[in-house]
Structures are given as C-alpha cells and as structure tokens.
Task: inverse folding
C-alpha cells in the first residue's frame, strides 16, 4: 500500500507540472480553500491535490489584531505606525508566520503563483501566538483607504527583495480589513494629537515620535466604539504592552454621567527620558533628563529585561466638551484596566513585580502633553497582588489606578532553605541561602539586618 501511494503521488505531481504548462495555472492566495474550484470558479489544483492526498497539515490561519478598531489614523509626520498582530493557527508543520498588507485597490495584483509581493510585511514570528509588529505607514495617505492584512506560513524570500513565497495563507473571510488615513493633527510633533477630541468614535490614533532621541509609541482609542457592546471593553497595544479598558458606556455607568466622551491613552518608551513632554511646565531636554534620573534613582530594582515603561491614562470630556479631565483612579467602582506585557526575558529564578509612578495628561496650550503629577507623592508604588507570569516572556495584571507602569526585579533569589520542612508550633533555626543585593558594602551581619523574612505573605508598606 505504501508503494502504491508513493506512485500515486508521483503521478499527481507530474500531472500538476504538465497542467501548469497547458492551462497556465495560477494558485489562489486563499490556500485555505479545499476543493477543485475556488470561489470565483477557477480551477484550484492545490485544493484538488490536498483533498485527494489529505496531506494538508495547516487547517486554518486566522490573523488577529491586538486593537479594537475599524479605522487607524496617524499624523503625516509619524515614523512607523505599528500594528501588533497575532495568529490562531490550527494544525501542524508551521515553522513561522509572517504578516503582509496591501491596499484593497490593488486587487489580486500582489498575488501570483504562490508568491506575495509588496512593501509592507512583518518579521517572521516563530512561536505561538506568532506575535509580530507590522508597520502600515507606507500604505497611509491623506485619503482614507482600506487595507487588507493576511497571515502567511513558512515564507521564504523570493528573487525580489519584497516578495515572499509561502505555503499557506488565511482565507479571505478571515483577513483583517482596516480603513487608514493620515491627518495633520499633531502640530508639535510629540506623537499626541493637539486635541484628543479629534480622535473620533471608532478610531484609533497610532504614532511614533522622538523625544530627546528616545522613540515614543503613542496609541489613543476613542472609547465610544460602535463595534462594541454596551459595557464592553476596548483593547489597544503600544510597544510590548496590551491595555484593555472599559468602554464609554461602562465608564458612564461606573464613574458617572458627567463622562461625555472618553479616550484611552497609552504610550511606551524604552527610556524614561523620552516619556514626558515637560516637567513642572518646563519643556527642556535638561528638565526631562533630570526627572528621569531622579525617578530611576528611586527604582525598586532592575527593569526586567526587554521591558518598557508604559504610561496609561483615561481622559474624558464634560460640560458639553468644554472641560477635559483625567480618570486616574477607578477605586469605588467595579471597573479596572487590564495590562499584559509581552516579549520580556524573565529569568528562571526571577519574580518581577509591576510598579507605578505618578504622571498626568494635560494641555500646554499647543496640544496634548504628558507631564509629572505635582499633586501625587513622587515615589514608585508596588501594585497590590503579584502579576501572573506567562511563561518566561509575559506578565499580566489588573489595576484601578493609572500612571506609568514598569516591571522590576528586586534581584533577590532564594536558592535553598535548610531545613525546608518544619513542624507547626516548633521553633527552629532556618538557614536561607541565596542572592540578596544591598545598596552599599556591608558585612554579612549588617546585610542580614537589612532583610526581614516572613513565612506567608509579607506586608506591603
């Protein structure tokens, strides 16, 4: 039987080669279709071959966009306009997934004989859920256009620099369709629109800008999202952090009817020096650098490898849109904001915690800016409760207070305890071995006095 199957396969492959010369066969890009005819009635030889052999390892590919929106807007002067994508892949044999995008007006022109050609594609994502960033800025102009985003498996560079062969692509029904447009709304070039109210219902603003040489990624979502249910949630992704917040209806029910319109503002930087626009009203590189140095000096540990600093704010209008205010605390409501940080490098003995430092959103007379919060205590605060560690690359938690967030590791590692089992009610000395960093040169006795050991939950000051 094995020999017969191999002979049948050889025969079919030979026939496919012959047919390719006779009928000029061009495979459809929606290779998820199984059958001898595609939706437009053209002969689908790969589908016929797979249906006969039942040899297709990948059953389906569904690209998923990590923001809730049908329209993305950006300033013309923005650098990248990154979209964070994942994919749900059913089946086996996937080495990697690559995301590609093209204008809907291009029709079928990017697809030809199992090859996709275009200017907008992501790096290859090798591990489920195949997370990658796709810069769509080259497809954006001042005229609103629709783009299509596809996920391809097991691609390889074709002869042209911007062409990829691929094994499978998602069905057209599963592609992501987005309307995109540039709008000149950021006159000071800081990545924030001059007036947040110009980000309309159902829209998400995405921009990258440089502040004192530090790249800042800004994402702003109008929380009046017509595609979401009442009391739903809206998710956005900036840098390596995905933030999910209550939508407008939920805020109106939970915070109060004074909330007329609302926006979720998320910005991410690798260096605190690029986070703020001004410090106590002073808009200079020296003021921002000094603020960053002071805040870093108070850091409760070492920033988790590959982590970013992420500023999260909820902004709303009241009094018929004449007053803009910030919701920095949801305590007293049943609402919260979920934070998921991915792409981290968490060591095997590392237990990072998420801390926050106070910031504020304001208007400096020119446009929207992020500043320090002079009304709050200038200290890092440990967010209550340990975050959920996702493998060795992610952290997740919920919070009711908003500011800038970052994961820090204390550097403490307990390697062993002797004895490691004790009888209840019996007092016994325990020798604990590990790594316990200190801020100065101390003797062993002095270092021992710098730490307290708790059995159970330690109190948080």
Result:
């Amino acid at each position: 039987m094995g020999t017969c199957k191999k002979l049948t396969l050889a025969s079919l492959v030979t026939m496919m080669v012959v047919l390719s010369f006779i009928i000029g066969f061009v495979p459809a890009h929606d290779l998820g279709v199984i059958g001898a005819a595609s939706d437009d009635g053209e002969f689908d030889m790969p589908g016929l071959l797979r249906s006969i052999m039942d040899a297709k390892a990948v059953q389906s590919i569904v690209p998923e966009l990590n923001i809730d929106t049908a329209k993305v807007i950006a300033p013309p002067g923005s650098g990248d306009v990154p979209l964070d994508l994942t994919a749900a892949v059913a089946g086996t044999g996937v080495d990697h997934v690559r995301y590609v995008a093209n204008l809907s007006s291009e029709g079928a022109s990017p697809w030809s004989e199992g090859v996709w050609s275009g200017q907008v594609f992501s790096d290859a994502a090798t591990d489920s859920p195949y997370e990658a960033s796709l810069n769509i800025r080259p497809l954006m102009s001042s005229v609103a256009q629709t783009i299509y985003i596809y996920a391809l498996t097991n691609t390889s560079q074709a002869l042209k620099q911007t062409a990829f062969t691929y094994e499978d692509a998602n069905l057209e029904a599963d592609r992501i369709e987005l309307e995109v447009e540039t709008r000149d709304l950021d006159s000071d070039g800081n990545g924030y629109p001059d007036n947040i109210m110009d980000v309309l219902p159902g829209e998400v603003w995405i921009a990258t800008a440089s502040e004192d040489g530090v790249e800042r990624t800004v994402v702003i979502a109008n929380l009046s999202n017509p595609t979401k249910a009442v009391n739903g949630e809206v998710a956005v992704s900036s840098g390596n952090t995905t933030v999910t917040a209550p939508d407008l209806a939920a805020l109106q029910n939970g915070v109060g009817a004074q909330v007329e319109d609302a926006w979720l503002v998320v910005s991410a930087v690798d260096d605190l020096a690029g986070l703020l626009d001004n410090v106590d009203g002073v808009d200079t590189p020296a003021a921002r650098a000094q603020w960053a140095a002071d805040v870093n000096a108070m850091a409760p540990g070492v920033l988790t490898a590959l982590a970013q600093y992420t500023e999260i704010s909820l902004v709303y209008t009241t009094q018929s849109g004449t007053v803009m205010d910030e919701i920095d605390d949801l305590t007293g409501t049943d609402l919260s904001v979920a934070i998921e940080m991915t792409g981290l490098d968490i060591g095997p003995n590392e237990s990072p915690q998420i801390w926050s430092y106070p910031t504020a959103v304001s208007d400096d007379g020119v446009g929207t800016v992020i500043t320090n919060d002079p009304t709050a205590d200038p200290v890092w605060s440990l967010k209550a409760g340990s975050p959920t560690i996702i493998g060795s690359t992610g952290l997740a938690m919920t919070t009711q207070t908003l500011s800038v967030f970052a994961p820090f590791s204390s550097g403490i590692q307990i390697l062993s305890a002797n004895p490691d089992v004790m009888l209840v009610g019996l007092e016994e000395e325990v020798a604990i071995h590990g790594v316990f960093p200190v801020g100065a040169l101390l003797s062993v006795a002095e270092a021992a006095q710098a730490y307290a050991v708790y059995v159970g939950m330690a109190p948080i000051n």
Remarks:
- Residues 2-56 form one domain.
